[in-house]
Amino acid sequence: MAIGKGFGKIIFFGEHFVVYNKKAIVAGLEKGISVEIIKNNDGKIILEPVEYRDSREKIIKKVMDYFGVKEGVTLKKVVSEIPAGSGLGSSAAFSVAVARALNKEFKLEKTDKEICNAAYHGEIISHGTPSGVDNTASTFGGLIVFQKKEKGNLIKKLPLGTPLYIVIGNSGKKGNTKEIVSEIKKLKEKNPKIFENIFNAYSSIFENAETALKNGNIKRVGELMNINHGLLSSIGVSSIELEEIVYKSRANGALGSKLVGAGKGGCAIALVESENKAKELSKKIKELGYDSFYSVIK
Ligand code: PMV
Prior knowledge:
This protein is α+β, with helices and mostly antiparallel strands. 45% of the residues lie in helices and 25% in strands. It is built from nine helices and ten strands. Strands 1, 2, 3, 4, 5 and 6 form a six-stranded mixed sheet that branches. Strands 8-9-7-10 form a four-stranded antiparallel sheet. A hairpin with a 6-residue loop joins strand 5 and strand 6. Helix 2 packs across helix 4 (133-140). The longest helix has 24 residues, at 192-215. 48% of the residues are buried. The structure holds (3R)-3-hydroxy-3-methyl-5-(phosphonooxy)pentanoic acid. (3R)-3-hydroxy-3-methyl-5-(phosphonooxy)pentanoic acid (PMV) is lined by residues 15-16, 18-19, 87, 89, 127, 130-131, 133-134, 177, 181, 261-262, 266. Residues 15-16, 18-19, 87, 89, 127, 130-131, 133-134, 177, 181, 261-262, 266 line the site of (3R)-3-hydroxy-3-methyl-5-(phosphonooxy)pentanoic acid.
């Protein structure tokens, strides 16, 4: 029997733009998904937990094929600390957890890079054409600059000038990443010039954000998160609930806030100055009727 874990993730800058080869800044969360897997003699994939059976079986199959594992396995248990379909990378965390558990159970001695690649194949089941940002953050954790590339993605650890206190608010609505990404593709095809301008604006946000994060200038990071949220709203991936969390966070002292992940539901994040402020803001968001927790990125 073997246990594997994948981190949840938050995208600070660049969801959707990363699909079109723009650089993104993403962080692994302490919270994630753990799975327990054991070899079986039936030669089949057997799932004991009942939730999401169909997609989980397909993800396990993809990861096993990638690793060349031919034996049967039983998924005994899934412990999830992050909500599904909420922009926190739960499907990638599941794929990474499966890859890590298979690696242990079959003594495959795979490197983190291979775990990440195997999880990418699992992600195809949930996301269709994933950029790779989720499985990367979910494998490596920490703060990362990610860029999708034809030959070998850019994966660079970003040194942080100061810890980041992040409050997460869940709109309670689920977004379908696969569908949303394909809607954006259509919108982009209809509006090439406008999207070119939006992408250029995003590239400036990224460059400024990378410097601000390195220098620990969190006020500036917050400002840039606000502008990034504006761009995401402009392409139609926000929602009434996300806007409420975003704007109420700002009204309650957040340095910046934005939706996170594919959008149209899922979560929004807010950057605050200290752990105390994170606790206070999380309480405020809960009072509005949304689930909330906070996390520190170091
Ligand atoms: O909502 P999530 O956690 O699945 O994040 C998806 C991020 C996107 O940029 C929208 C898609 C991708 O593949 O990068």
